Amino acid sequence: MPRVPAHLRELALGMLQGGMRTADVARAINCNVRTVRRLRQRYRETGRTADRPRSGRPRVTTPSQDRYIRTLHLRDRSRMATTTARVTPGRHNPSISAQTVSNRLREAGMRACRPVVRQVLTRHHRQQRRLWAQTHRRWTRQDWQKVLFTDESRFCLTRSDGRIRIYCRRNERYTEACTLERDRFGGGGSVMVWVGVAQHHRSELVVIAGNLNAVRYREDILLPHVVPFLQAHPDMPLQDDNATSHTASVVRDFLHDRNVSVLPWPAKNPDLNPIEHIWDLLDRCVRDRAIPTRNVRERAGDLVEEWGNISEHELANLVQSMRRRCTAVLNTAGGHTRY
């Protein structure tokens, strides 16, 4: 009786001992009459209601094949279970099923999950990140409160890496073997936006039509949004990354003429910018909306609305995490962190 739980077997036995008919007991626990009869017969012979021991379903793979499957997926974390199943013969069949491969990996503590997408870091990038973290790790919270963090991001309607999975064990989520390194991903139409965040201030979310070059960055972002804010807060430096539109001579000359100090920022350093977490939060909020986005114009409107829903407390917590981010970079010798 494998389908009857233990508590129902005990209940059925009590009903039989209470004088109920076999058919009524079977109807009460929703099983066949023959099952109840076998239960009564087993209790009379053994004095127990537990099901008889069985050998179970025969295993279709050998122990050596189990080790081979585990080794294959440890060497190639993105290898699909169907690929391994096609090349692995079974004991009784020409090949095993993908579910069998997943079961063997699960027995070894490996489960499928989405990879962590990060940028490629060369030796020079790691060295520059480490030096920057050593310089700014002694900054206090008051020092980071005086920084205006800015960034722009492109939100795609669809993602091209949504179906990629990797197999990882416990505490391996952020290791190099389980990391997917890419410079760009996504597709299906996109919209670019820009924001600025400080400890107690935020800018409006600016929707950028098309691509952003140095002239448009100066005329559409710096002149109407950044410069007026920094002139009202003269002791606050500007943080931006090393994008071409930010490091162009026309932009640097424009900032120098208006006495805007720029915080030095190493290349390939998105995990140190707290706004990257804001992009992830906005993306999840937009994709969890009840009505899905149909075009780029609706996506831009959804982003503006969700930007206003983010609380000041969340933004302040991200800015206050800068000291921990610097420590994390130093602990990895300039490598990837969990931020």
UniProtKB/TrEMBL annotation:
Q: Which GO terms describe its molecular function?
A: DNA binding
User: Known Pfam families for this protein?
Assistant: DDE_3, HTH_29, HTH_Tnp_Tc3_2
Ranges annotated as biased composition (Basic and acidic residues):
42-54
Q: Which residues form the Tc1-like transposase DDE domain?
A: 147-293
In this chain, the stretch annotated as Disordered covers 42-65
Question: What name is this protein filed under?
Answer: Tc1-like transposase DDE domain-containing protein
Please list the residue ranges annotated as the Transposase Tc1-like domain: 66-137
Name the Gene Ontology biological process terms: DNA integration; DNA transposition
What Gene3D superfamilies does the annotation carry? Ribonuclease H-like superfamily/Ribonuclease H
